[in-house]
Design brief:
This protein is an alpha+beta fold. It has helices at about 20-25, 75, 85-90; strands at about 5-10, 15-20, 30-35, 40, 45-55, 55-60, 65-70, 90-95. A 5-stranded antiparallel sheet has the order 1-2-8-7-4. Strand 1 and strand 2 form a beta hairpin. The longest helix has 7 residues, at about 20-25. The two termini are about 20 Å apart. The model has no long low-confidence stretch (mean pLDDT about 95).
């Protein structure tokens, strides 16, 4: 998935990642998500998440190198949260660079 499909908010070396409106539009309604585990180390070649949606099943690569310090566990239980536009509930993971 292209870089234009996710947003990044960085604060003191911690990057919060979510899907942009364009990314959500390309995927369609998200119905399933698989996120990494806290403590996983990722490079930009590694998969950050797997999503199943109306239009596509996709592996989305990590936009940054780092360690997962938090995942949106609410989104694991309710993947539809990732369809929303409120960044406080539609984020995917927080990665420490």
């Amino acid at each position: 998935m292209n870089e234009k499909y996710y947003w990044l908010d960085e604060d003191n070396g911690v990057v919060t990642v979510g899907l942009t409106e364009e990314g959500k539009s390309e995927l369609g309604n998200i119905t399933f998500v698989s996120l990494p585990k806290v403590g996983d180390k990722l490079s930009t070649k590694d998969t950050l998440l797997n999503v199943e949606a109306d239009k596509a099943v996709s592996d989305i690569e990590s936009p940054v190198d780092g360690t997962i310090i938090e995942i949106n566990s609410d989104a694991v239980n309710d993947p539809s949260l990732l369809n929303g536009s409120d960044k406080s509930t539609s984020w995917i993971a927080r990665i420490e660079k």
